[in-house]
Structure formats: C-alpha cells, structure tokens
Amino acid sequence: MKKYLGFKVVLLMAFVFLIGVTPSWAEVFSQCPGDINGDGISDDPNIVCIHLAAGDGFVTMADGYPLYMFGFSDVTGTPDDLVMGSTMFKAEFPAPTITVKEGQKLYLSLSNVGMPNRPDLSDPHTIHWHGFPQASTFFDGEPMASFGVNMGFSLTYFYNVAEPGTYMYHCHVEATEHMQMGMLANLYVTPKQDGTPKTYNGKTYTKFAYNDTDGSTGYDVAYPIQIHAFDPEFHDASRNVAPLNFAGIFDSYGMLNGRGYPDTVNTGFILNENGYPAQKMNSLITANVGQKILLRISNLSFDYYALTVLGIPMKVVGKDAKLLRGPTGIDLSYITNSIELGGGETADVILDTTGLATGAYFLYTTNLNHLSNNTQERGGMMTEIHLN
Amino acid sequence: MKKNWIKFGLLLVTVTALLFMASMPSRAAIQGLTGPNFSLTAKQDMISTADGGSILIWGFANGTGRAQYPAPTLIVNQGDNVTIDLTNQLPAPVSMVFPGQAAVTATLTSGTWADGSLTKDLNPGAVVRYTFTAQQPGTYTYHSGTNPDLQIEMGLVGALIVRPSGFNPASPTAYGHADSAYNREFLFVLSEMDPRIHEAIEFGDPYDTTTWWPVYWFINGRTGPDTMSMPNVSWLPTQPYNIMPRFHPGEKVLLRIVGGGRDPHPYHTHGNHVRVIARDGRLLQSAPGAGADLSRMEFTVTSLPGGTIDAIFEWTGKGMGWDIYGTDTDFEHLCNAKSVADAQALRLINPTDPYFTTQDSTTKELCGDHGKPFPVTPPGQLAFTFGPFYSGSPYLGAGGSLPPGEGGLNPNAGFVFMWHSHNENEIVNNNVFPGGMLTMVIVEPPGVEIME
C-alpha cells in the first residue's frame, strides 16, 4: 500500500513540474549583475549573462534512429518563474555554444528543470568549464568536490574570463552517464588582440585565436568542431529505465557538433521525434579561396579520434586553450595532415586555403569505422568544406 | 539568503602560515625502493578492486615479500650502476626489460633460460642479474619482456625514477635544470585490466588477449576511490601505493605519469593546466642546457602505453576575481600587510595601484583580488546535493555549515579538484560509478601541515 502511495507522490511531483507551477520550496533564480532593465540580458559590455536549463530531450541520428538524451537548453532572458514549464524536453545536442571575450565576466546560471521522461530520477546537474585556468572548487562544477544542483533549483557560476582559447563545458554529475547522454558543448574565448590589425605573411587579420602579437593565429572564418559519439544501447536503456551497461559502452554513432554525416552538412533543421529541432548545429564549413579557416576542435567523447582534411594542410597553432609557443617564445606550431584528440582535449587548427581550387573538401575521421551511422555506411564523423 | 559561514581556523591559518612557511621543507612523496641494488621476485597474488572484486595478478615483489601492483618503484641516481636480481617464482617464464636504458646486460645466476621475443625468458625457479648504468635522469618504466601482452596485463609493470646528478632533496629537480624544479612529486602509473584474462589464468583456461576489453582502470595499482586511501593500508596488502596529492597554493607539483597498460589515457587535471616539461625521460628542450623551452601547457595530457611524461602543476587562484579567503572582516587575512578593508579602500581610490599586481610571498595570494567580494548569491542548502569533499563554504581555509552527515573529507577546507582519465568510461569500476582512474587533489590552505 505504502509503495503505491509513494508512486502517486512522484507522479504528483512530475505533474506539478509539468504544468509549470514551481513549488514554494524550489527556486529558479538567475543572476545577472549587468542587467539594468530586468530582461535577464546584460546591458554592461564587460558582463555576459547566460541562463541554461539542464534537463532531457530527444535527438535523431543521421540514419533516422531516435535517441533519448540529457542536455542543456538556452533560457537566457526567460523570466525565472516560466523556466520550469517552458523547457520541457527542449534539451539540445550539443548544448548551446558559449562564446565570451577575454576580459569579460561571465555569470552562467544553471537551473535544473528535471527530466520528465524519467520521473524516477532526481539527478542533480552541474556545469564544468573544462580547462578553466586557476579554477575555484565552488565554480568548477565537479560534484564530489563541491555539489550538484538539485531539480527545481539554480546556481549562478561566475568566471573571470582571463585566458583566450578553445574550451568546452559539460555536466560533471555522474559524468560517465551524463556525458554519454549528451550534456556537453563548445565554449571558446576570443582574445583581447581581436580588432587590432596584424599582418602575417603578407595578409592582415583582425581576428585571432590567441594574443600571438605577430598575427600567426589570424583567421578569416572560424568553426567549432566538437567530436562526440553515442552508444544507442545505452540511450535506449536509459529511455526504458533499464540498467546502464557502463562496462560495455560501445559508441557507434560518431558525430561532429551533434550530427552524423550527411546531417553535418544539412543547413536545415533536424527534428527529433517530438518535432523539435534539438540538434541546432551543422558543421558545414564555407570560405573563399585564400581565406584562413580556424577550426576549434574539441573532444568530449570516451575515446581517441583522429581527424584529417583531404587537400588542405592543417596548421596546429593551439592545444588545450594555449598558444603553441614555448616559454621563451619558440614557435611550437606545426603543419600536419591529421590531429588526434582524446576525451577532454582541444586543439586550434588553421586551414590556409591560399591557391586552392574551389569546390568541396572533406574533414573526416581517420578512425574509418566511425564513418558510419551505426550500421549505415557513408556517414558518421565527417563534414565538408566548401571553398568558393 | 542566510549567510551561514562558520569560519574556523582562518586566523589560525594566517598566523601559522608565517610560522610554517618559512621552515617548510620540500618533500618527496614517492614511495619506492632506493637503489642501486635490488632483489625482486616474480610471484602470483591477488589484488582488490573498489567494487569488491578480487583479481589474480602476477607481480614483482621486493625480496621475499608479497607481489605488488604496480611493481616496486625503483629509485636510483644518475650514474649509478644498477643491479637487479630477479627470481622467478611464477608458473611461467618471466623477464624484465628497461625501456630507455642503454646497455642493459642480463647474466644467469642459477636455473635455466631460453630465447624469448624481446629478451631471454627466465624459466620458473631461475635467478638472473640485470645490470645497467642509469645514464640519464627522469621518469621511466620497467616491465616483463616475456609474453608481454599477457604479462603486463597480469601486472608485471612498474616505474623507475632516476634522480639527476647533484640531486638535493631540499631543493629537488627532476632533470637538474631549474625548469624541472618542484616542491612535491607524485607518481601516476596508469593502467587497466580485463578480469576475464586473469580468471582464465587462475583456472588454467585458455586466454585470449585479442578480445581484451578492460573494465577496471587503475592509478598506482588501485581503482578509485581506493586511490585515496593511505599507502600501505592493511586491507590492500598487494597494492601499497596510493595517489592523493595535497599541496599548498604556489607550490610546484611534479606529476610523473607512466603509461603502464596498453591503452592511451587522456589525464585531465581540474583546477589548472600542467606544463609538460619532459617525455620518455628527456626534457623538452631545443638544445642541451636550454631547459624546458619546448614545453607546452595542457589541461589534458595523453599518456601513451609504455611512455612517460613529467608535468608541473601549480595553483594560486590568480585572476579569480574574488578574494578566495573571503572578505568577512570578522575573520581577517592580510595580503602583503594590507587588510581586506585596506585593500577595498585603496581599490576605490586607485584601482591601478601597483599593490594590486603583487603577490603575497607567504600565502601566494594574488593581492589584485584581495578584498573583492564573492560575486554571486549562492542558493540555500536545499538546492545542493553535497559531495563528500565539500567544506561548506567557497573560501579556502574557511569551512561552513553542512547538513548532518555531509562532507567531512576536507577538514582543512582546502580547494579540491578531481584529476582523472577523461575517457569517462574509465572512471567506473566494472559498471559501478564512480571509480577507476580517478583521484582527488586538495590545495590545502597555507600553514596546514601536510604529513608525508
């Protein structure tokens, strides 16, 4: 009898969350010191405010297979008392990209809006800015060292953004599970040098990957490329409230920026089974011949993956959000045809398209078995570079 | 929002910082055997995994002791003539190889041996003497050269550390050059196991190392969270080494990372980047004597199988944007002789005063953030599911109230960071999360004495 009543209570709680009524003991509370007019968006150019909601949702793989997932959605500007009700099943994969400038202060509010597809779960969530230099435990988002944010509550993370480069962010609660389920995203910081013209090898740039002082990391267009892969059996087990097989994780949907080829080059919407476009990023790269393309490559998957670009030399200028330059100024950048990253690594790669023919080039993994969407060939971890 | 910080000890910390920091010696923290002569035995035993599992291993034991995993860390000096007498008490042939060491000779002392793929394989019961001169300082590995796909998996792998000529424990370096100077050093032998292979050996069944699928991951022979228990705990008799670095702000921490298995591992240090200064026992230098001028900073270091890395980690909280010791004037701390109120007043008058570019030489606090208030309003305690290492407060050295039973593993209110493999399936013990290749490190407030 008692068990049945308990189940009813859980149902009631789920219902309450679903209709958007926030119980008095829960509190969605975003903070933005730079917000003067109360719309939740900073009016101070030195302050960036973002409000992310952590919850669950659905995605569609490139072979059409639907998967359940966990993720973040962007609720910046949504009034706090409407956040819980408005974000149901709106988690995105990858989560929204965060871009900030060196010297800004980032107030990143995280609200845990619960996972209505799993009313049996009460998982907390966190945000871990992966690689943030000189971090504090309180804002690091690693729950064993600090805490996780419970359902219905918020925490505002603060970052004094001091170092430019390519980073990532992800949930660190039950990291194996939450990251496999998709709670991860691109994050990068543009350098103070941006806007100051620098000439390198005869060309002038105003956008740079780092404060290189000599223009060597100058670029014309930039694209983040995030490597990740899903194990469909793990996601299906999660959807079906079945035990999760951590020991047997086997990723077979390799993706860039949340989609497998050819969805990586689809500039339209990819709809999930609810008709919502949860996978908002494509990876189609376009540039004019002669331009320099900056690829901000990151890997938050569970394995090493190597990427190559056929026909365009790759110059690696940064690794793990640091300029490849020795402490006494020696240039450590190098030209290559492939770059391999394990989970948790990032790299900045510049493609110089000077003197190349127009047309389509391919960026793809040389772990060739991952050029597939599970059992569907000609898919997976690949995208195209269109030179005009 | 109720401000509920109970600040115990911060005043004590400030006072004792002045007392202790002046006399705090640098300490080595790597357990092992000091050479140059060693007597090791290859034998069979069992290890424990943190999910309650028990695995048969083959390991190198010190003399007549029990086998251990990983093998004993051998510590010698540059220039030493190293001798290792190895006795084989395994039911199979065994040997030792020393990647990175030149001119290793093997002399049979008793018993018989036969040609193997990498070296002479010692038959059961035989004794061999290996000798070499440790010509170059650095972090190295040694392991069985016999049937290595099986025997390294079974546990016959360990670390070898060569101290540079002129090594001074009061002012240690890894390679002699100041770029490799450190205050504390820690060894990370990274490895993994597929228990089916060990079960096959245990029961005399055929084993297959081509279908290898690891489900246990280790640092220094222990799965998380056993990594954080004390060294030499009685309930892990064959896994004597631990890994739980504790250090102070501003100290240089040397990570000696050894790839002891057959998989690469991306090792991620929360809290800050490390500077990778050496690989495979060689400083990353453009010319001899130049120092580590080819070093690079990484927040995730790839450990290659059989390879080694030396990297230096340092944390000060620079650029935090708020005072990491808190601004409550009930509980004062000084940064270069200025109080919180002094710094706040100066910041109002002249925010670009050179004072704000200084660093306190005792506590290593960056005075630029001295007196800056905490930037957000934290939620109430109901908002959080607490971790066992949470101190109850965001501040270094100041605990806060926690619900009964919460926290407790961080009594000095240090800043705690997880250092772990970022191939996240590797922080699991055979389906039990968390575990595997993870540990926590604690940045202890200045003045907290760290016993080693």
Number of extended strands of chain A? 25
CATH class identity of chain A: Mainly Beta
Q: Which structural category do the helix and sheet elements of chain B fall into?
A: mainly beta
CATH topology of chain A: Immunoglobulin-like
Low-confidence stretches of chain B: 1-26
Q: Bin the strand percentage of chain B.
A: 25-35%
Low-confidence stretches of chain A: 1-5, 16-24
Rg from alpha-carbon coordinates of chain B: 24 Å
Structural class of chain A: mainly beta
**How many DSSP E strands of chain B?**
26
What is the 3D shape of chain A? globular
Q: Could you state the order of secondary-structure elements of chain A as H and E?
A: HEEHEEEEEEHEEEEHEEEEEEEEEEEEE
Number of helices of chain B: 4
Order of helices and strands of chain B: HEEEEEEEEEEEEHEEHEEEEEEEEEHEEE
CATH architecture of chain A: Sandwich
Question: How far is the first residue's CA from the last residue's CA of chain B?
Answer: 41 Å
Radius of gyration of chain A: 21 Å
Offer a quick outline of the entry:
The complex is a heterodimer of chains A (388) and B (452). By secondary structure, chain A is mainly β.
Please describe what this structure looks like.
The complex is a heterodimer of chains A (388) and B (452). Chain A is mainly beta. Chain A has one domain (2-387): Cupredoxins -  blue copper proteins (Immunoglobulin-like), CATH 2.60.40.420. Helices cover 10% and strands 35% of the residues of chain A. Chain A has helices spanning 2-18, 80-86, 175-180, 232-239; strands spanning 47-60, 66-74, 98-101, 105-112, 128-130, 147-149, 154-160, 165-170, 184-190, 198-200, 203-205, 221-230, 253-256, 285-287, 292-299, 305-309, 314-319, 322-323, 334-336, 339-341, 345-352, 359-365, 372-373, 376-377, 382-387. In chain A, strands 12, 13, 15, 17, 18, 19 and 21 form a 7-stranded mixed beta sheet that branches. In chain A, strands 14-25-22-16-20 form a 5-stranded mixed beta sheet, with no helix packed on it. In chain A, strands 2-1-4-7 form a 4-stranded mixed beta sheet. Chain B is mostly beta strands and 452 residues long. Chain B has a domain at 322-374. In chain B, 8% of the residues lie in helices and 30% in strands. Chain B contains 4 helices and 26 strands. Chain B has helices spanning 10-21, 148-154, 195-203, 340-349; strands at 27-28, 33-34, 37-48, 54-62, 67-68, 74-77, 81-88, 105-110, 113-115, 120-122, 127-133, 138-143, 157-163, 184-193, 216-219, 246-247, 253-259, 265-269, 274-279, 282-283, 296-298, 300-303, 308-313, 384-386, 415-421, 438-443. In chain B, strands 1, 14, 15, 17, 19, 20, 21 and 23 form an 8-stranded mixed beta sheet that branches. In chain B, strands 5-4-3-7-11-8 form a 6-stranded mixed beta sheet. In chain B, strand 3 (37-48) and strand 4 form a beta hairpin. The radius of gyration of chain B is 24 Å and the shape is globular. Chains A and B meet through strand 6, strand 7 and helix 3 of A and strand 18, strand 21, strand 24 and strand 25 of B. Strand 6 of chain A pairs antiparallel with strand 24 (384-386) of chain B.
